[in-house]
Amino acid sequence: MRGIKGKVAIVTGGARSIGAAIVRELVLEGASVAIADILTEEGEALARELGSQVLFSETDLRSDEQIERCVDATVKQFGRIDFLINAAASYHDKGFESSRADWAFTFDVNVFGSVVLLQKAHPHLVRSGAGAVVNFSSESAHAAQAKRWVYPCTKAAIEELTRSQALDVAKDNIRVNAVIPGWTWSAPIKKAHAENPEWVEQLAAQFHMSGRIGSAEELARAVLFLCSSDASLITGSMLPVDGGHLALGPQGTLELLPPK
């Protein structure tokens, strides 16, 4: 993709799963990456594996000081920041039973941390001249889900945040977009599949036109597209990377007409 080589990205939640796939794809395209994550062992291992193009910065997104330290370390190591990719997320959600503390914790990680990251990195993105931010929404933001209140609300908030951020930083030549993943091979999906593979695969086939769960690499390449100069006219947008999930109604792929 054009406009990736030689650039520098911060990827929150980049130590494993989808975040790690994004880090790998960025490195393959010639970018340097700072992994911002609380998973020290996995983050450091990935940085060692990928070499001098990758820096690990232990970062709790609930801490303004740690976010600022990550930004400073990235600039010290690589000299610039061009992209922010907010892949980190907390799935802490007990639905009706969620306490005020549960709500505060999840919003702090899923929403507020990315806001502070943009504030701290903003001067560097301005100097980039072609900065890009990619947020992570979810199909959960678009439909009622039993026993899930907190996580879907954070993702709905991220979509409105994305639109407002895009408007306010457009004057700085910074674009802000979000991806909307469908079911993607990630830690929660892998856990559910290990417990009941037939059930997970049946639901995946019913809820996706593609009939399957997406790979982390497929999602990562969509993220890179939104960072690239190939997406130079795209901002304030939500890109579904979901195998057609959002285009389906509540019936999924089921045929509702009686057989002839």
TrEMBL record:
Protein name, per record:
Short-chain dehydrogenase
Domain of life (superkingdom):
Bacteria
InterPro entries given in the database record: NAD(P)-bd_dom_sf, Sc_DH/Rdtase_CS, SDR_fam
Which Pfam families does this chain map to? adh_short_C2 (PF13561)
GO molecular function ontology, one term from the record: oxidoreductase activity
Q: Which family does it belong to?
A: Belongs to the short-chain dehydrogenases/reductases (SDR) family.
Give the keywords, sorted: Oxidoreductase
Give the species this sequence originates from. Answer: Tardibacter chloracetimidivorans
The residues that cross the membrane are none
